[in-house]
Design goal:
Belongs to the NusG family. With 149 residues, this protein is mostly beta strands. Helices cover 13% and strands 38% of the residues. The protein is flat and about 65 Å long.
Length: 149
């Protein structure tokens, strides 16, 4: 329906379970929330119209009544569901190196220049030493907060 710029992902939360039947073990996919679908989208009148008028959609979690917009999941709730399903968040690809000079793009240290002292891939963070008041100060920043010089 030409809504790919507003509706990104539609998920049916499932998990793998092991069932034992007649002495045989087999892996079965079970729905975590039977009857529910999770939609990652930008909530606009158009995108909401498309979702609520999709055949089979009868209601929304958190709706106070007909015509009221649904309540969004908190980021940590969505993360927990995705983690339970085994869906990993996309990792940022970086090409930073230790001792490389970078410029801070945003935050309280915006426009400071420093050198990378540590790269934490699992946390998507870098530790940068910036020169503040004539002293080297370590600052922990997200990958998207720094750029190569």
């Amino acid at each position: 329906m030409d809504m790919t710029d507003k509706i990104f992902r539609v998920l049916v939360p499932v998990e793998e379970e092991t069932e034992v039947k007649n002495g045989k073990t087999k892996s079965v996919t079970k729905k975590v929330f039977p009857g529910y679908v999770i939609v990652e989208m930008i909530m606009t009148d158009d995108s909401w119209y498309v979702v609520r008028n999709t055949p089979g959609v009868t209601g929304f979690v958190g709706s106070a009544g007909a015509g009221s917009k649904p309540t969004a999941l908190l980021p940590e709730e969505a993360e927990a569901i995705l983690k339970q399903m085994g869906v990993e968040q996309p990792k940022a690809e970086i090409d930073f190196e230790i001792k490389e000079s970078v410029k801070v793009k945003e935050g309280p240290f915006a426009n400071f220049v420093g050198s990378i002292e540590e790269i934490q891939m699992d946390k998507q963070k870098v530790k940068v030493h910036v020169n503040m008041f004539g002293r080297e100060t370590p600052v922990e920043l997200d990958f998207n907060q720094v750029e190569k010089i």
